[in-house]
Amino acid sequence: MKFKIIYLLFAISVLTSCHNASLITMNKATPQTFDYQAHRGGRGLMPENTIPAMLAVMDNNKVTTLEMDLAVTKDEQVVVSHDPTLNPIITTKADGTYIKANEFTIYQMDYMQLQKFDVGLKIHPGFSQQKKLAVTIPTLNDLVDSVELKGKNIGRQMFYNIEIKSVDGKDIIEHPVPEEFVDLVVHLIKQKNIVNRTSIQSFDLRPLKVLHKKYPNVQTAYLVEGKNTGDVKMKLDLLGFTPTIYSPEFKYVTKETVDYCHANNMKIIPWTVNTKTEMDALIALGVDGLITDYPNLIQ
What's the Cα-to-Cα distance from 18 to each of 7, 24, 68, 116, rounded to whole Å? Predict the structure, then answer.
């Protein structure tokens, strides 16, 4: 009888461990293959951070993740934009005229006001291959709905890597305070049932810390830049916890950086890698994925 009880307790322990592991896997799903991410939806080919860009890149079966940036409007709509102020390089008014730098701040505008500006017709001097089309800044809600619908139709589930664009000192001016920003985003991805396919990234430590404390099941990606990105320990000490992904500026990645990340149970996904030579070199170092403006270069 004594041995039967011990065996029963052991069996329960194993089953409980397996159940917990399955929950972790469900909540922390990541691409099982190399993680090719289309930066801003592949802005080398299409207008950045737009629904047409995201839908077009889904036809490339090598791309696993749609990378994008977030801002918030005055009426608390989470929108997909890299810049907190409308970017004069890509933005035109309804009458086709251009805007000035820092003329329009998204957080000071209602979403309906934002829809009066086009972000796809003006030729971007840095991306000659980019297709031009009339398009406005979308809400994250509409973008996810569009991606999920196409995914259902073509039999694909995309992953999302979304960046909270915030800067210490710009709270209430260019964006909400970090906790409010995080709450808006997490509420939406939960509502869309994509938490297990989403990572939230930021250069700003504050939203990452909020995520870690308040929403530990949400995957985090720590964006870093500059020469000291190779000092991963120092960067992690600043953050105060180990994120799901370490995402450094690609040109500072070394084999030591990769090995340190893997030894500390982190994936390493560099940004923004825009030539085949650079891609091959980083893959040889053992990175787990790449973020690129040119998903057409992926072999």
Answer: 17, 10, 34, 52
Q: Which two tokens stand for residue 238?
A: 């600043």
Structural domains of the chain sorted by starting position, each given as residue range(s) with its CATH number in brackets: 33-297 (3.20.20.190)
CA atoms within 13 A on the CB side of 71: 25
Nearest residue to 277 (alpha-carbon basis) of 255, 250, 259, 249? 250
Could you tell me if 272 and 161 are in contact, meaning their C-beta atoms sit under 8 angstroms apart? no
Q: pLDDT band at residue 1, thresholds of 50, 70 and 90?
A: very low
Contact 70, 164 (CB under 8 A): yes
What is 74-117 written as a DSSP string? TT--EEE-S-SB--TTT-B-TTS-B--TTS-BGGGS-HHHHTTS
pLDDT at 22: 38
Could you tell me the two tokens for 34?
């190399």
| Higher-confidence position of 16 and 55 | 55
68 forms beta bridges with 162
d(CA 171, CA 161): 23
Please name which of 85, 97, 65, 249 lies closest in space to residue 161, comparing C-alpha atoms.
65
Q: Exposed, middle or buried: residue 123 (CB in 10 Å: 0-12, 13-18, 19+)?
A: exposed
Asked which of 21-25, 58-62, 150-154, 233-237 is least confident by mean pLDDT, the reply is 21-25
Q: What is the Cα–Cα distance from 136 to 293, expressed in whole angstroms?
A: 20
Higher pLDDT, 127 or 13: 127
